[in-house]
């Protein structure tokens, strides 16, 4: 470790050598500097383009329609794209949920729940269950048992106006 009060002479010599190296280096040539080469190439291309066609002010050039060069025309044979569009979404998974009923609890009531507790729901026995797709009510149905597994038989498809009324429950 060096003493800050006594500068090291070798360190001064190193600095001097580095400074002389830096001053001895010239600016890099175009061969070494890819930016300079690219700028020179661009300037040459711009000057060649100006010689071929005189520049006009941008405001005097009329707007050209994109036409068929950008947008491909619609084919008449496609008529309705509905079947093709539906094929694109057929493999998208959705979450189906059957809701037995709902209730509201206070935190105190929630903390008092234990194994064997019974929670009363707002729905009545025998009342149709709500069928939700991704959280949206779309139908109602009744519970069925098929080979020891629960299922749901759809009894009614909910219309959009009925969906709004059901949201107020």
UniProtKB/TrEMBL annotation:
It is a peripheral membrane protein. This is Flagellar motor switch protein FliN. Keywords: Bacterial flagellum, Cell membrane, Cell projection, Chemotaxis, Cilium, Flagellar rotation, Flagellum, Membrane. The gene is fliNY. The lineage of its organism: Bacteria, Pseudomonadati, Pseudomonadota, Gammaproteobacteria, Oceanospirillales. FliN is one of three proteins (FliG, FliN, FliM) that form the rotor-mounted switch complex (C ring), located at the base of the basal body. This complex interacts with the CheY and CheZ chemotaxis proteins, in addition to contacting components of the motor that determine the direction of flagellar rotation. Belongs to the FliN/MopA/SpaO family. It comes from Halomonas beimenensis. Gene3D superfamilies: SpoA-like. SUPFAM superfamilies: Surface presentation of antigens (SPOA). The keyword Cell membrane applies. Residues 88-158 form the Flagellar motor switch protein FliN-like C-terminal domain. GO terms for molecular function: cytoskeletal motor activity. GO terms for biological process: bacterial-type flagellum-dependent cell motility; chemotaxis.
């Amino acid at each position: 470790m060096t003493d800050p009060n006594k500068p090291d002479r070798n360190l001064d010599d190193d600095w001097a050598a580095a400074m002389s190296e830096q001053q001895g280096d010239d600016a890099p040539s175009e061969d070494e500097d890819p930016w300079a080469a690219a700028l020179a190439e661009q300037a040459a291309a711009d000057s060649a383009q100006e010689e071929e066609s005189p520049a006009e002010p941008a405001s005097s050039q009329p707007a050209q329609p994109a036409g068929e060069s950008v947008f491909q025309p619609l084919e008449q044979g496609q008529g309705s794209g509905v079947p093709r569009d539906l094929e694109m979404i057929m493999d998208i998974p959705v979450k189906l949920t059957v809701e037995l009923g709902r209730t509201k609890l206070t935190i105190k009531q929630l903390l008092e729940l234990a194994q064997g507790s019974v929670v009363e729901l707002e729905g009545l026995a025998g009342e149709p269950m709500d069928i939700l797709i991704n959280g949206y009510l779309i139908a109602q149905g009744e519970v069925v048992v098929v080979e020891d597994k629960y299922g749901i038989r759809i009894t009614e498809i909910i219309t959009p106006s009925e969906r709004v009324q059901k949201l107020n429950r």
